[in-house]
Amino acid sequence: MNINTPSVDVQPVVFNHPSFMGHEQVVFCHDRESGLKAIIGVHNTVLGPALGGTRMWAYQSEAEALRDVLRLSRGMTFKASISGLNLGGGKAVIIGDSRTEKTEEMMLAFGRMVDRLGGSYITAEDVGINTRDMELVKSQTDHVTGIPVEMGGSGDPSPVTAYGTYMGIKASAKFKWGSDDLTGRKVLIQGIGHVGITLVKHLSEAGMEVYVQDIHQDRIDLAVTDFGARVYEGDYADAPVDVYAPCALGATVNEESIERFKCSIIAGAANNQLRNEVTDGALLQSRGILYAPDFLINAGGLINVYSEIAKYDRAESLRRTEKIYDTTLEIFRHAELKSITTHQAALEVAQARIDASAKLK
Ligand code: NAD
């Protein structure tokens, strides 16, 4: 037997992956010099080029990274569609710890990989990636957004994401409690990163009692010193709050946590909050917990980076982002009318726009 031939067949993990769901392209990238290992997912380009941020994370395995990029890029397809943008859905992940393993060479190599896709994928920031990184990527490719304002870009999208998430929380309160006055209500924000910290600001200013949680002490300290937030030490699922706002990673809303939640509203910026979008959505509904679909209320950042392509200014980005309030209410009403989950309702509306555009083509 040839010693170079694997003796066992390895199960293919891409085309039959549970999260593959019709992806157009899944590209594995490796650069030997910089050590870059990345995966780019292009889910759907019916409405336009696939735009989505790059996440750098210390994934425990390649399988975990693949799953993340597939789920995230599909989410971008629906996010762009429901927000009325002429964009498709894509996302990239870089495997590694952004605090200790990121180098300039790695970001340059990543930029070259994005360039090779010829514009079918346009990148931006996500977890672990900042505008300085995008500046480096920009030196290698034009297919990048979220670049610094000084370079003619729209800057960090996170504050706009936080603003849209705030609109989604207000709309949820209006639907659940009949008023969007948040005064005196309690919220737990999990993840005080780029988005989380601005959300702390909006919700504190709106009179909420804000509790925070992060794996990094410096982020917690920032929320406490700058905005008087309180620290929540327990498990997020047990927090005695009215609103849970996930702003870290995905899948924190799952079979185990749903049973324990004390909150009546889940509305946050994190992507892919539901571990299983079908069963977890239904469980939330049966427990009477109102869920604001993540890809709808966290679209502010995408709306902001899209301004670099559609050429509108920050004021227009904020105006468009403010509309998330009305769209969220429409989705809640649509779900109620059709007796489906709010997540399903948002998917239906987003898919309808994609189908209509595909027909025209
Ligand atoms: P970030 O990297 O700046 O912040 C994430 C924060 O979460 C970090 O402070 C990290 O320490 C913390 N964290 C990670 N795991 C945690 C855990 N288990 N418990 C508590 N805290 C934890 O990222 P960001 O840009 O603020 O994005 C936050 C979320 O919002 C992500 O899911 C991202 O995909 C999503 N999102 C971001 C944008 C944007 O404009 N940045 C747009 C749409 C969606």
Description of the molecule:
- With 361 residues, the chain is α/β, with parallel strands linked by helices.
- It folds into two domains: 25-75 and 88-145, Leucine Dehydrogenase, chain A, domain 1 (Rossmann fold, 3-Layer(aba) Sandwich); 159-299 and 327-349, Rossmann fold.
- It has helices at 62-82, 104-116, 131-138, 158-177, 194-205, 217-227, 255-260, 279-286, 294-297, 300-310, 314-322, 324-338, 342-360; strands at 25-31, 36-44, 50-51, 54-57, 88-95, 121-122, 186-190, 209-213, 230-231, 243-246, 265-266, 290-291.
- Strands 1, 2, 3, 4, 5 and 6 form a six-stranded mixed beta sheet that branches.
- Helix 1 packs across helix 13, helix 5 packs parallel to helix 6 and helix 10 crosses helix 11.
- Bound molecules: nicotinamide-adenine-dinucleotide.
- Nicotinamide-adenine-dinucleotide (NAD) is lined by residues 125-128, 157-158, 161, 190-196, 213-216, 219, 247-249, 269-271, 298, 301.
